[in-house]
Amino acid sequence: MAEWWSIEVFDSQIQAALSWKDSYRSQLVESAITSGAIEWAWIEHRHGVVFEVCFADEARWQAFRSLPGVQAALDAVPDPVNGVLVYRGRGGGAGARSPRKPRPSAGAGALELPEPVAQRAIDLSVAELSRQAVNL
Predict the structure, then answer these.
(1) Phi, psi (rounded to 5 degrees) for 135
(2) Which of 44, 88, 97, 118 is 20 to 30 A removed from 125 (C-alpha atoms)?
């Protein structure tokens, strides 16, 4: 079964991520093709870029990931510690553009709750117990 993998590069300055993409695009695509990639795509978003690549199995992904050119590209990202994510699945633009709005509850959550009723409280302090004993 084919699986998608993503390499996401982001930076506070989008230009740095776009510059990285321009520098390593050909190298990554060529490495993906020689490793047996079925499909690939570049996605640009406001925080960076994502290289999505699909391989027939995980072994081909591992072969791609261990190539020296891919390692060099990953080492050259603008922020190699906090600015790169490598993960299984599609990324970047695969999600919704805006968060979903909550729908009104159609079940029991829509029922009106009864007003709270005042509860009787009994004072169990020592003074109250002795006063009750005297009254008996």
Answers:
(1) -70, -15
(2) 118
